[in-house]
Write a structure and sequence with these properties.
By secondary structure, the protein is mainly α. It has 21 helices and no strands. The chain has helices at 14-24, 39-107, 110-141, 144-154, 160-171, 181-199, 203-228, 235-256, 265-282, 284-306, 317-330, 348-368, 374-404, 417-443, 448-489, 509-528, 532-553, 560-578, 583-596, 606-610, 620-627. The longest helix is centred in the first third of the chain and has 69 residues, at 39-107. It is elongated. The chain starts with 13 loop residues before the first helix and ends in a 16-residue tail after the last helix.
């Protein structure tokens, strides 16, 4: 029979248990049976069973001891919990009592109850200190419930604020281990925000105090360290650091607005930011302007040094304006002509650098300026850009370019001013783009807008005056070069060939060379100008080109075959004029072509030709002047047709 604890369950009868054991043992029954009674076997079975009972007893004893030990441990833990609860309750009770006594003591006269008041105050402060120590220990253990209980008790004590300070100090321990104070702050506030509502009755006040503590200590120290080390040694890095730190601080403040910080959290956070940066922001624009002034001058000087060029002083004020008016009126060079060897003294790289610096300055200005000062500050940055880019670079290049334009009677002159025009236009487009993209948004709703637009207009007009003067002088040089070609290549015999019947050319050499030169200049103008400026310049060039040819043809006498050659030349000039793509210019050469027909038309048909569509509106003196160029004018009595 298996020996188990179930055999001894109540009610238990020992005699019955032994009888049942003997009966189940073969040869052990008292009345015999199928097998004879065997006392030895029964004794052996009893001995084995007694051994099993001993083992069972040991097993049960061990289990009992284990259960007793567990019971003692749980009883002890329970007793501790009861003691803690009792002690906690005694704290609450003591706090309530001492709080009431403290309030009563305030009303007692000092002279009669000084000793009592002192004892109450001492007990008050001791209990307050114990509560704060208990709160601190609970916070270190992470016992939120205990922290909440103690904080609730301390709420009515003067030391409650100190309890909050302790909490704020401890929750920052180990929070700033990375090298990013802004990210660490965001993570810390996110974590504390989840906990603070479980501990304090006014979590928004505690969160606001935590954030204030971080701003006034961690962030302020970080900002001061980063800025003070570069403020006087590296202004460029200082401005970059100031922009970056202010941007990251405002971005952090935006994240923190998702927490409950009280009724006016935006004003609260703005004041904290101002307390950190106010001393730096007050001097920002002065440092920005000084940096841009120095940096712009350095960029300019570095460029001219690379060209091994010493800048010439350019006059200003009334004397310069007077010289400009004289130059425009007379088209005379005022000063020596400079050979620039094709150098325009305009640098795309320099322009990009200046615009890049100004773009960064506008970005910093937008971020760091007080809204009321933003338009004024942005305008001051714009004025520096105008000075460095428009005056010191573009205007200087135009002055040098004007001085380098040769006189109109110069031979084989290289005309580089159009290259200056091309680059100046490209640069001004970039300047205009920055004006619209970056300056306008900063000033568009302020009175400074009109001032900026006026300044821009003034700069444009000053540049246009010099561009127009230079282009006019350049066109004069072009016409002078054409005149030189005609003077050297055109022979009188071209239009009075010795053998009228043996003329093999389609047009004269002078015409061919002039047209080739004009075509190159037209192409040059197209590459150098844009928009309506192309048509304006080509119209002026075309009109002067026509005037030159018109006056040139009136210097010769024409035989019949010479007149035909003149018509061929004008036809070639007209073909060249088509490249101008200016209707007026083509019309002028059409009329000139019709005038040249007067050199070859039969005398009897002169009157009919003069009444033709293209000539009928011309002055008869002009028609007569052309007819007088014919060799047969006197012999054929052609003057009678104009009497």
């Amino acid at each position: 029979m298996a020996t188990t604890a179930q055999l001894f369950e109540e009610p238990f009868d020992a005699d019955e248990y032994i009888e049942r054991l003997a009966w189940r043992t073969p040869g052990g029954g008292s009345k015999g049976g199928a097998e004879a009674f065997d006392p030895k076997r029964l004794l052996e079975e009893f001995e084995n069973h007694i051994e099993e009972l001993k083992q069972l007893d040991e097993k049960i004893q061990r289990r009992v001891e284990k259960l007793e030990h567990q019971c003692h441990r749980e009883a002890k833990e329970f007793a501790h919990k009861v003691q803690d609860l009792q002690r906690s309750n005694q704290i609450k009770e003591a706090a309530d009592i001492i709080q009431k006594l403290h309030l009563i003591a305030q009303e007692l006269p000092f002279d009669r109850f000084a000793d009592v008041k002192a004892k109450i105050a001492s007990k008050y402060h001791d209990l307050e200190r114990q509560l704060i120590q208990e709160f601190t220990a609970a916070q270190r253990r992470g016992e939120i419930g205990r922290m909440r209980e103690v904080a609730a008790v301390l709420l009515h004590f003067k030391g409650y604020a100190h309890c909050v300070d302790v909490y704020i100090k401890q929750c920052q321990e180990g929070a700033y281990l990375r090298n990013d104070v802004f990210e660490d702050t965001a993570v810390l506030c996110q974590r504390v925000n989840k906990q603070v509502g479980e501990v304090f009755s006014s979590p928004e006040t505690v969160m606001a105090k935590l954030i204030q503590n971080i701003f006034e200590n961690k962030l302020q120290a970080h900002v001061r360290e980063k800025l003070d080390e570069t403020r006087h040694s590296d202004v460029e890095q200082y401005l970059k650091n100031l922009y970056d730190l202010y941007t990251r601080t405002t971005a952090l403040a935006t994240k923190l607005t998702e927490f409950n910080l009280g009724s006016d959290k935006h004003t609260f956070l703005s004041k904290l930011i101002k307390s950190i940066f106010s001393s730096y922001l007050e001097s920002y624009i002065d440092m920005e302007r000084e940096y841009l002034r120095t940096r712009g001058a350095m960029i300019l000087q570095r460029y001219y040094d690379s060209k091994n060029h010493q800048k010439r002083p350019i006059g200003t004020g009334s004397i310069q304006e007077l010289k400009e008016r004289i130059r425009q009126a007379t088209n005379l060079p005022l000063g020596p002509i400079i050979d620039t060897h094709g150098e325009t003294f305009l640098s795309p790289e320099l322009v990009v650098n200046l615009l890049q610096e100004t773009r960064h300055a506008f970005e910093r200005c937008n971020r760091l300026s007080d809204p009321s000062d933003l338009p004024k500050n942005a305008f001051s940055i714009f004025l520096l850009l105008v000075d460095h880019l428009c005056v010191e670079h573009i205007d200087y290049a135009l002055e040098i370019g004007l001085s380098a334009i040769p006189s109109s009677d110069a031979k084989n002159a290289n005309l580089y001013f159009l290259d200056v025009v091309q680059q100046a236009n490209s640069i001004f487009h970039l300047f205009d783009k920055q004006f619209n993209d970056q300056l306008m948004p900063l000033i568009s709703s302020s009175p400074k807008l009109a001032e900026c637009l006026h300044k821009k207009k003034e700069v444009i007009e000053q540049m246009e005056v010099k561009l127009d003067t230079g282009i006019d002088k350049t066109i004069n040089c072009m016409v002078g070069q054409m005149k030189h070609i005609l003077a050297t290549e055109q022979k009188k015999t071209d239009f009075r060939p010795e053998d009228e019947n043996n003329v093999m050319i389609q047009y004269t050499t002078a015409c061919s060379k002039v047209c080739a030169y004009v075509s190159r200049q037209v192409e040059h103008v197209r590459k150098s100008m844009d928009g309506k400026n192309v048509d304006t310049v080509l119209m002026e060039l075309g009109v002067r080109f026509h005037r030159l040819i018109h006056e040139h043809l009136q210097q010769y006498s024409y035989s019949s075959m010479g007149g035909m050659l003149a018509i061929c030349d004008v036809a070639e000039y007209r073909r060249c004029a088509k490249d101008f793509r200016v209707p007026l210019v083509l019309q002028l050469f059409d009329t000139l072509h019709a005038l040249c027909n007067l050199l070859v038309v039969a005398p009897d048909n002169l009157k009919q030709v003069c009444s033709g569509e293209q000539l009928t509106n011309l002055d008869r003196n002009l028609l007569h002047a052309f007819v007088q160029l014919r060799l047969d004018y006197r012999s054929a009595r052609l003057g009678r047709h104009f009497s």
